[in-house]
Amino acid sequence: MVMKPIQTLPGSEKQMDHKPIVDDITHQPAGKLKNKIALITGGDSGIGKSVAILFAKEGAKVVINYLNEHEDAQSTKTLIEKYGGEALLIPGDISNETFCRQLVEKTVKHFGRIDILVNNAGTQHQTQSLEDITTENLIHTFQVNVFAMIWITQSALPHMPKGSAIINTTSVTAYQGNALLLDYSATKGAIVAFTRSLSASLINKEIRVNGVAPGPIWTPLATATNDKEGNKHHGENTPLQRAGEPVEVAPSYLFLASKDASYMTGQVLHPNGGSIING
């Protein structure tokens, strides 16, 4: 049986009863990303939104890609501008190779280069069994989660100077698996392997490549995929017995994007509520 999401994927923050916490109003900026240019896919809501806000607070100019959640994206842009930052919104479907390359071209045309690439956007479809996975959803999940990451990175690399950083969003499911997210988990495992391999490939270019593997986080995508009962218990199986908020994940991206992580490449950080994954 294919499970029907409660929202049209990838979900909208506007339609959530409990809005995710994406902004740490107590954060004291230290200029860690001053004058950097950051391209973030899936930056309109959830983890991507929190990362975009935090990067902007730290001095980065941010390009936010999203599918079609214009209201979510505009609210993110407005908040960034409230803090004195600059954000460029570029909507479009990253499952399309041509658009992925256009996304990079538009970013470079506007800002001249890319210092930080955050491959964050993703999609998922819950099913009760392997037999229930449709070929259409299988292909689309890999296109959004893996192919787009490769297409965008391919296009971005010629415009990334020495010292740049690439951060890929994987998931705890890459390490633990998930019986209801078989194809999604497979894509997240592929992202771990891609991150490690790309980090070795780019050593001579002096570009660091790392990943973040969030656990159950309160995001539009996660809650849109679950039913109401599933959302009620989202994250209860972690040692901290709750779902995380995007604002609790964003600092991992800031660390990896900044000089603080200058001796880290090919690694994955695990803001997952205390789950031990040994990976």
Automatic annotation (TrEMBL):
GO molecular function, a single term: oxidoreductase activity, acting on CH-OH group of donors
InterPro entries listed in its UniProt record: NAD(P)-bd_dom_sf, Sc_DH/Rdtase_CS, SDR_fam
The keyword Oxidoreductase is assigned to this record: yes
Protein family: Belongs to the short-chain dehydrogenases/reductases (SDR) family.
Residue span of region Disordered: 221-243
Biased composition (Basic and acidic residues): 226-236
Record CDD domains: SDR_c1
Classification of source organism: Bacteria, Pseudomonadati, Bacteroidota, Chitinophagia, Chitinophagales
Protein name (record): NAD(P)-dependent oxidoreductase
A Pfam family assignment: adh_short_C2
UniProt entry keywords in alphabetical sequence: Oxidoreductase
PANTHER family in UniProt: NADPH-DEPENDENT ALDEHYDE REDUCTASE 1, CHLOROPLASTIC (PTHR48107:SF16), NADPH-DEPENDENT ALDEHYDE REDUCTASE-LIKE PROTEIN, CHLOROPLASTIC-RELATED (PTHR48107)
Organism annotation: Niastella yeongjuensis
